[in-house]
Fold this sequence. Notes:
alpha+beta; CATH 2.40.50.100; 4 domains
Amino acid sequence: MAEIITMPRLSDTMEEGTVVKWHKNVGDSIAEGDVLADIETDKAIQEFESEYDGVLLYQGMEEGNPTKVDTVLAIIGQAGEDISALISGGAPSAESAKEEPKTEQVEAKASAPVAEIPANVHVITMPRLSDTMEEGTVVVWHKNVGDAIAEGDLLSDIETDKAVQEFESEYDGVLLYQGAKVNEPAPVDTILAIIGEAGTDVSAIVANGGQVAAPAETKTETQEDEKPVVVELDVNHQSTNTGERVFASPLAKSIAKDKGINLADVKGSGDQGRIIKKDVENFQPVTAAAPKATAAVSAPQTFVSGEDTVIPNSQMRKVIAKRLAESKYSAPHYYLNIELDMDNAIAARKQMNAVPNTKVSFNDIVVKACAMALRKHPAVNASWTNENITQHGDVNIGVAVAVEDGLLVPVVKNTDQKNFAQISAEIKDYAGRARERKLNANEMEKSTFSVSNLGMFGIESFTSIINQPNSCILSVGAIIEKPVVKDGQIVVGNTMKLCLACDHRTVDGATGAQFLQTLKMFIENPVTMLI
Length: 531
């Protein structure tokens, strides 16, 4: 029976996608794990794999034409199978749905001033590396004008509103032009660089802001060469500690991330050793000691009496300011405070860390407890819109990490399904890469609840601003040794204060209080999280 494959939603903000390249043609045999197409989302270009075996019977869209999520992307079935009913009953055909917009696009391009681009010249624009990115800043150029470039060479490090990411070239040639100056913000889609043959004159392209048309002799009726040149960060490989590139499909990367598997340890069975879904699912990991993380503390500023210091706002600081202001003034915050007895947690952590290659922090215990409490109180694991309240099926906890010029919130996906060691290793990895600004955009998305911990700085209690679209954020203070009353006697005990900030639109006071009661039970008795 034929299977209909629709345009997937590859990011939480994706509304439409564009097939940049089909890797399979109608009539080709397809095996599970084969790459069907490269799909451009609002964030990156990702390879899309088939989950079915069979023959490609239908392509629902042409390369270069944006298509709404959930429309028919492809149909896979048996050779010769009649799929006419599926095509007519599915999304409108690619030809009928896109004929008019395409004509308008051609007319618009005909009226716009464009410069002819030689076939050997490639215009690279500032990529959109996160869903909130509006402009990027080149922190450093790794290549200068006149340098030879090979595919895969690092062109520059680009600072977004969330991280600093390395940006690679997808072309061979010579760097003819740098469109962005170091430390000067440049809007997304403006010229970042131009690569081509040495001596090529690109002044007309630069003067036209990168609006280009292909040479007349190569134009076709389908206007295939009028597709915009799009360069995005390579999301299908990661690097080992030695710098060797590891190639893996997006699905394999996602599964490996959820399972805490280092792709450098996995042997790929796909084309040219590429790691695919089944390689990760069949991989048997080897337990290793987790790296130790330290708190990030900014270097002290030099104070000069009588002199003002003006510090330009970074992209991260601008976005932090915008989002926190929006959250504070749009979500009606209220706060619930509770104090915990940490004696049992201290003893339990000591026992867990007695296991070889194990290093669990109190923050790891809190994160795990939050995840389990959210499963029992789904109303807290929710998001508000003007139309509805969404209670999320996954528990994804964002963990606030202080960096030199702001705050990043990497997300531990499916936290409730992970043990203490997995959570600990993932948080330490994220924290280390956050401070080096090496986090990927998809590692900071889809949180359903957030945790902020200032206990390591000796802060006993504080309140936080909700990290929307979350409904709540938990503020965690320091563990304090002080006199407490137990069984009518004053004894020395260890306590920790928590403050839960709630969005009153989704979480009522009683709901938040019940969540805190469950959370208190888990943290004060960690053994209950192992049952």
